[in-house]
Predict the structure.
Amino acid sequence: MTSALIVEDEPLLAEQLRGKLAMLWPELAIAGVAGEGQEALRLRDRPETLRSSQTYGHLCKLM
């Protein structure tokens, strides 16, 4: 299963991205949502968080 970590400091945008991802890629599991970089690093280092090599360019195409 593929998972993603959403990092966005605007809660409304993070929720919209989560919704678009759910609609376009229903198999994707959202491992967490972080509002800033340090929080994202903490979430990334959790054992249950899977890592992927997504780039921001791929995500921008969804918006």
Observations:
- The chain has a mean pLDDT of 77.
- The chain has one domain: 3-60.
- The CA atoms of residues 9 and 35 lie 4 Å apart.
- Helices lie at 11-24, 37-44, 56-60.
